[in-house]
Design goal:
alpha+beta; FAD/NAD(P)-binding domain; D-Amino Acid Oxidase, Chain A, domain 2; 3 domains; 17 helices; 18 strands; 36% helix; globular
């Protein structure tokens, strides 16, 4: 991938996508695979928003069974199966334990029925069916549950985890680019003009300040929580289309051996405790949000809610066990009267020619991350109809770039050839899948790039060069938070920021002032994750 603003201004595109989250990149990939000349512009970076601040799950959504939203469940369970096939290096089975307690007899009766329906709807041959465990079997599998009063047993069921959701998003962008799409990050869409059948989109390079005009036949707004703001910038009335709700997550010391589904004692809402990189990933909340989507963070009240509920199951849990937090926004289709948790996660396509008389503009509203590929398929189907094209979707059968998964023997051989530890090479494979060999090529060509980015970690300098050369990493935050997992760990990458900034400075030609600005900018971003302590 390359940030080619000259190409952006020179060509006329069949489709211009605004938004580089999982839905936007999925749309760009689908369109490019169908042969549409496609441009994607993203004001920050790929996976910057909701995508990177999620529960990191690919799931049907067990909590939606009581809402009887079988259409969403069927869609998401089908998409879960597809992603297991096309992205096995990033999407993996995760077994969840749901405790059964004597004080909740209704759950003990309803849960087996719900899980039975979940299995039936899934029709999955890839994942095992539900399993009932006695109290003794439950404690043998998960000793931490010994603190739960009235524990009588548990149920175990399967869903999927994507530990590095950022990479799933990025691989959609990479595949779009490899099929002749132009994908550009740090590119803000600021206005739309129409000249006959061609739309002219004004785009600002937010790094250099340069202004450009991109021309396209269809413009598609996939801005997620920013979709209404995108409409405003394009002089389209987007007021009231979205309901934005905030969800936060905590990264804590390791609390459990397995993924747990727990019920909040205060309001009955389900939340997860998920193993993640030797820690626990905990969430989420669901509260309405009216502010600036760029300024969302986990407030003390959000953290207090989760911490209080955790202490019901882990009495020794304290705030000092929290390494940091994340906060993101769901973009839900507005539905008056319902609570945030009751509002459907279904998506909607808006053809602004029909609604507002604006030809060639389409918006995607709502939807779950799990369904991103299906949402993209529907969106590109609409684009093809508007362009009078017949081009079938192939994304359900076309593996993403890092597929398939890498075998252990291959990792051992690669580690020996590159002079790296098996731990480091296995880590690279978990990030890049089969593309990990591209990173090792840098190590083989320059031994200095085998240096660890920070002591005790598995990441190497070659990843920085690979990210700059091939993945449009333009800032320290791009690399630490969305090209690697360094900034997601307990230290938030603060022990790596100086090294990464120094390497990127030499690759991108930053002077000492820019290098320091990048460091301070990253530290400001990282500080949001600890703001709840103030």
């Amino acid at each position: 991938m390359r940030r080619d603003f000259d190409g952006l201004a020179r060509d006329t595109f069949d489709l211009i996508v605004i938004g580089g989250g999982i839905v936007g990149t999925g749309i760009a990939r689908d369109a490019a695979l169908r042969g549409l000349h496609t441009l994607l512009v993203e004001k920050e970076d790929f996976a910057y928003g909701t995508t990177s601040r999620s529960s990191r799950l690919i799931h049907g959504g067990l909590r939606y069974l009581p809402m009887l939203d079988f259409k969403i469940l069927l869609q998401d369970l089908r998409e879960r199966e597809i992603l297991l096939t096309i992205a096995p290096h990033l999407v993996r089975e995760l077994r969840f334990i749901i405790p059964l307690v004597r004080s909740a007899p209704f759950n003990r009766l309803a849960l087996p029925v719900g899980l039975f329906l979940y299995d039936i709807l899934a029709k999955s041959r890839s994942l095992p069916s539900r399993q009932h465990l006695s109290r003794r079997e439950t404690l043998a599998k998960e000793p931490c549950m010994s603190t739960i009063d009235g524990l009588v047993g548990s149920y175990v069921y399967s869903d999927c985890q994507t530990e590095f959701m950022e990479r799933l998003c990025l691989e959609n962008a990479i595949d779009a680019a490899s099929n002749s799409a132009l994908v550009v990050n740090h590119a803000l869409a600021t206005g739309l003009r129409q000249d006959g059948g061609v739309r002219s989109l004004q785009v600002t390079d937010t790094l250099s300040g340069g202004e450009y005009q991109a021309h396209g036949r269809i413009v598609l707004n996939a801005g997620g929580p920013w979709a209404d703001l995108v409409c405003d910038r394009l002089n389209v009335d987007g007021t009231g289309s979205l309901r934005k709700t905030k969800g936060i997550h905590l990264l804590t010391r390791k609390l459990s051996e397995n993924a747990l589904v727990l019920s909040a004692r205060s309001d009955g809402r389900l939340f997860f405790v998920i193993p993640w990189q030797g820690c626990s990933w905990i969430g989420t909340t669901d509260t309405d949000f009216e502010g600036d989507p760029d300024s969302v963070f986990a407030e003390a009240t959000d953290v207090d809610y989760l911490a209080s509920e955790l202490r019901e199951y882990f009495p020794g849990f304290k705030k000092d066990d929290i390494f940091h937090t994340t906060a993101g926004l769901r973009a839900l289709v507005a539905a008056g009267g319902k609570t945030a948790s009751e509002t459907s996660r279904a998506h909607r396509l808006v053809d602004h020619e029909t609604r507002d008389g604006i030809k060639g503009l389409v918006s995607v509203l709502g939807g779950k991350i799990t369904a991103y590929r299906h949402i993209a398929e529907e969106a590109v189907n609409l684009v093809c109809r508007k362009l009078h094209l017949q081009a079938p979707c192939s994304t359900a059968d076309t593996p993403l770039p890092g597929a398939p998964s890498v075998q252990t023997r291959t990792l051992q051989e690669a580690a020996g050839a590159a002079g790296l530890s098996v731990e480091t090479v296995a880590h690279l494979a978990s990030l890049y899948g089969s593309r990990f060999s591209s990173v090792l090529e840098y190590v083989r060509s320059d031994g200095r790039l085998a240096q660890l980015i920070f002591p005790g970690g598995p990441d190497v300098l070659a990843q920085v060069k690979h990210a700059v050369d091939n993945e449009e990493a333009m800032t320290v935050s791009d690399f630490l938070l969305r090209r690697s997992a360094i900034g997601l760990g307990p230290s938030q990458g603060l022990d790596a920021v100086e090294t990464v900034a120094g390497e990127m400075a030499s690759l991108l030609g930053w002077n000492s002032m820019e290098r320091q600005n990048q460091i301070e900018s990253y530290r400001t971003v990282a500080a949001l994750g600890r703001r709840f302590t103030k």
